[in-house]
Amino acid sequence: MAELYDRSEALMLAELDWFAEHRFVHLDGRADGIVRLWVNPAVAVCGADPRIAAARHSFPYFTVEDASSEDRVCVHEYSEDLWEAIYAGNFEAFTRETFLSPDCRVCCSPRLTVV
């Protein structure tokens, strides 16, 4: 991926570490240039049940307050009940029929920026 996006591997790994530190992703190992990661379903759109990844890695849920708020992003620590409520309230967003392709890279191509 570093070659594809004309970036250094070290920079990409540093960015992944930042995302992991802020709990947008969970890094589940690195070997031979391959990074296995889990994306926090609060920031991903992929047509899958978010409760599995959320429970596996105790992912928090993020909400954004209005622009006048001093701290615009609120982090709600992992709660099974919270993720159940999110799933129930947004069920149609987590069904595969919502998306044109089961391969999320087709509908959500990565956009990399310096962090």
Defining traits:
single chain; 115 residues; alpha+beta; two-stranded antiparallel sheet; two-stranded antiparallel ribbon; 4 helices; globular
Uncertain spans = 109-115
* Estimated share of beta-strand residues: 15-25%
Tell me the overall shape: globular
DSSP helix fraction: 25-40%
Q: Give the terminus-to-terminus CA distance.
A: 17 Å
Structure annotation, total helices: 4
Biggest beta sheet summary: 2 strands, antiparallel
Entry summary:
Helix content is 30%, strand content 18%.
Tell me what the structure shows.
The protein is built from four helices and four strands, in the order αββαββαα. A hairpin with an 8-residue loop joins strand 3 and strand 4. Helix 2 runs antiparallel to helix 3 (80-89). The longest helix is centred in the first third of the chain and has 13 residues, at 9-21. The protein has 115 residues and is α+β, with helices and mostly antiparallel strands. The protein has a two-stranded antiparallel ribbon.
Task: Itemize the secondary structure elements and their pairings.
Layout: H1 9-21, E1 25-31, E2 34-39, H2 50-57, E3 61-64, E4 73-76, H3 80-89, H4 104-107
Helix pairs in contact: 2-3
